[in-house]
Amino acid sequence: MDTSARKYGRVDDAFVGELAAIVGKDKVSTSDSVCQQHGQDESYHPNMPPDVVIFPQSTEQVSAVVKACAAKSIPVIPFGAGTSLEGHVAATHGGVSIDLSEMNAILEVHNEDLDVVVQPGVRRMQLNAHLRDTGLFFPVDPGADASIGGMVATRASGTNTVRYGAMRENVMALQVVLADGRIIRTSSRAKKSAAGYDLTHLFIGSEGTLGVITEITLKLYGIPEAVSSAVCPFPSVDNAVNTVIATIQSGVPVARIEFLDDASMDSVNSYSKLNYTVAPTLFFEFHGSEAGVAEQAEMVSEIAAEYGGTNFQWATKQEDRDRLWHARHNAYYAARSRHPGTKGVIGDACVPISRLAEAITIAKMDMDQTPIPTYIVGHVGDGNFHTLYMIDPDDPSQEKEAKKSVERTVKMAISMGGTCTGEHGVGMGKIDYLRDEHGDAIDVMSSIKVALDPLNIMNPDKVVLV
Amino acid sequence: MDTSARKYGRVDDAFVGELAAIVGKDKVSTSDSVCQQHGQDESYHPNMPPDVVIFPQSTEQVSAVVKACAAKSIPVIPFGAGTSLEGHVAATHGGVSIDLSEMNAILEVHNEDLDVVVQPGVRRMQLNAHLRDTGLFFPVDPGADASIGGMVATRASGTNTVRYGAMRENVMALQVVLADGRIIRTSSRAKKSAAGYDLTHLFIGSEGTLGVITEITLKLYGIPEAVSSAVCPFPSVDNAVNTVIATIQSGVPVARIEFLDDASMDSVNSYSKLNYTVAPTLFFEFHGSEAGVAEQAEMVSEIAAEYGGTNFQWATKQEDRDRLWHARHNAYYAARSRHPGTKGVIGDACVPISRLAEAITIAKMDMDQTPIPTYIVGHVGDGNFHTLYMIDPDDPSQEKEAKKSVERTVKMAISMGGTCTGEHGVGMGKIDYLRDEHGDAIDVMSSIKVALDPLNIMNPDKVVLV
Questions:
Q1: How far apart are CA A27 and CA A312, in angstroms?
Q2: Is A348:A388 a contact under the CB 8 Å cutoff?
Q3: Are the Cβ atoms of A384 and B166 closer than 8 angstroms?
Q4: Tell me: the pLDDT tens digits for A300-343?
Q5: Which of A64, B176, B229, B454 is most exposed by smallest CB count within 10 Å?
Q6: What is the CATH number of the domain that holds B315?
Q7: Nearest Cβ partner for A423 among B110, B194, B447
Q8: What global pTM score does this model have?
Q9: How many Cβ atoms are within 10 Å of B310's Cβ, its own excluded?
């Protein structure tokens, strides 16, 4: 971590007054509890509170705040819903947390063009509730009810990615406030463009280190005519994962294909009051026409049967499907609730699908060596799996041991042509692995960071160290 | 255009000797004919030959050549197949053209992971011929038998994009030689990643201005079980385009949906010896299972019938489909052959699909004002259409008039929330419109260009002027 804190300006009363003049006095807080709440995400990373939190109401206010920060070299940390997992919101040098939750308007729904323009504070579930009557939906679903701005900033994905793509594939254009306060638009609403460098993708996954995202244009999809979900236990991890590999290679356009290991199924059963078989399990979802869904389901059933997955439990009614996916989405919270007082250290490796069975098997053997309670879940249709360690925050040896295990999994994934993070982002938690993964390309990332944020005020100590 | 030519070094005999020492004497040419051939694409842009052309055999050779160029501030222009349309290959300050056509190996096919690693000189048709026995294919199809490197560099798309996406969606990772000769890899073979800035997308569409692409990992798809194509004439442009809009909005996963106006159909008939009805026409293709294709075809037939498109001509046999798409792909060459000695000035607007009928109607009215022969074709499923003006290269007033008409179409597209170029790229031809489209975001592009190519040796005077 960059410890040259001296280069940053101090947030004093006069500066807080400047901020209040921009956003209004009631939209500025220096209270301990508010600052603490903004220095912490949902993971094990230590709480590093900002000096002040502001709640802007417009892009122009964000721009004025960033300008004021730039003038005094004060760090700026954008904050969405706080559901990130790699310490993205930690204010390593204090500064101003820009909480975008009050910029949560859905600005324009273009039914005919299948797109929507939203402010960054809009939550995923809020968006889909708003869209329901239009017959359209936004598919990217990381589980948590994250803000759209945060999902863009971390290049989130989750279930549904195997069919609809991640944020990377579903953001058409952004409005961004740069590190000097300038406001830009990265692209248009055209479905494709070859007009210059792809700034949209540069800001997707930039984790607040290049600018503050203040408006987002997203792709939408028609709600499928038919949807069908299923849960199926397997005799082993290997059998489950080989079913995934065969399904993807067969080209069946499955919408979701999720893996939970036996430990996860057990805690999900307790937490969500269900009675699924405690075994390595796949959760499926199929989207399409009535005939298409039936055809997909039949093909996948046949593949699963070859690997001993014969006990499909189908859910076609909305409420049954909701219960099923609710259980899947709450796997992390289920694990936390099973081990009260623990925090999660979470691996997020992603490998080419041909290596997935091997990767999960090796990771599981590694995890089985530790006395820490561990779980594996994964968006396995993409080759992405999470290794979850529920650590006692008062026992530093547990954090150390969990992180060492994550590191071994990361190195394995990279050696297989994979990545250290499929969807959680770098934050502070994965920063040490980036050179292993990218080599000298890190220096290109640093050059871009320096070019766009010469004072290094935008979310410092995340993604790249400069 | 930047006229400060003095800042560039001279290609003298000693420097040509340096290049020969790197790539071998027989892989360097300073002959007039070779240099002329490398200063010209397939459009109206003036021939601006490089001083020397080299034919490297490896990434290491490219790196050594770029290093040598950087040491003397000599421009570097990457060259693929020369099929671009906006003057991308013009050597505005002379320098070294790096012809990558001999780096044309297909390095690795990963059947199980649905990806392939290729060198940049591999041609689109070569790749699909190579893949045929694997049951996989690469869908991006700009018509011309372009090089994969060139398709990445210009963010190409074409037919099939409506279903499979453009190059933007289908490149997983790149190896790139930077402006100082460093070699980087932008990403891994993982299907998704949140590990740092998205350098892959930064280089896609960078048109040789940030580095030389020397290796490409592409997504592949299973060859669909069933494919069916159809041609259908419509009573008016409006009826045809409204059929497209309704089809896209219905969510039918059509693989191709292409528009040709009556003039294009007439020249296609002559050129390809066919007898299609001379009317505004849509070309369709459907991919899927037997049942899926039948379902899609039926839905689209119903939509088309509502707009007067009742005379579908179906092609399901491979040879019939090939003839149909061959005709479509040769629309530009058909126009050129109908007006011998002419060159094409080509518009490439792309608008949100809801505005497409209006945009094409206005563009056609504008084109009808000029005595120059004009044509409209389009990848209309994406909202992308080409306005084609066959100009007499000896009559400067025609070039001027055609470019003015293109400019009006560009401004209309931008005012509709669209883009000045859907797929051809900026080159020299669209550079004047970028600020209209992107505003201050251009300055961000310039900052990135300066950060990664401080000497401005990489394909100068393209995309952004610095």
A1: 52
A2: no
A3: no
A4: 999 999 999 999 999 989 999 999 999 999 998 999 999 999 99
A5: B454
A6: 3.30.70.2190
A7: B194
A8: 0.97
A9: 13
